[in-house]
Amino acid sequence: MGRMTAVLVAYAGRHGGTRQIAEVIAAELGAAGLTVDVRDAADVAGVEHYGAVVVGSALYYHRWRPEAVRLLERNARALAERPVWLFHSGPCGPGAATHQVSLPAKVALLAARIDAERTVTFGGRLDPATVHGLIPKLLASGRRAGDFRDWDRIKAWARDVGRRVRTRVAL
Ligand SMILES: Cc1cc2nc3c(=O)[nH]c(=O)nc-3n(C[C@H](O)[C@H](O)[C@H](O)COP(=O)(O)O)c2cc1C
User: What is the pLDDT of residues 86-108, one digit of tens each?
Assistant: First the structure.
């Protein structure tokens, strides 16, 4: 397996829900025969070693986490030379499974610069026990409380990415 088949899956979140999505994506890509690194976006020094990159962020107040935005900003040129897939995770409650959220404006500009693939939205997880502060507790209450991550959908998306990586990246 050549160097260019290595894929980076970088994530940013606050309560571990997005990290677990990144890990499941990485496992699917690994099962497809790709070499995969899964990293906290804050720990990514560069993307030059990777043939393709997946970047995912949790949504907080309609924004991406700053670590994920910084990764896109700092590596925009190198990312533009590679296939890049973006995902975000957030919607909770009724309709979470199908709700597609558009990219925050700043991230949309970066995505255009990078020529990223179309972004996918995955449902999120809201646990009233782990969020801190009055507004977060309110947000995490009632019908929005729970785990709305659809693992089958996430895995199917990852398998599709894997297929595309294999056809687009020079082996
Ligand atoms: C304070 C707060 C604000 C949030 N804002 C949004 C939002 O604007 N859009 C959205 O879709 N989800 C929003 N969510 C839901 C989170 O994105 C969801 O809980 C996600 O799974 C968190 O990922 P993490 O565990 O990786 O931090 C918010 C959650 C909290 C606690």
Answer: 999 999 999 998 899 999 999 99
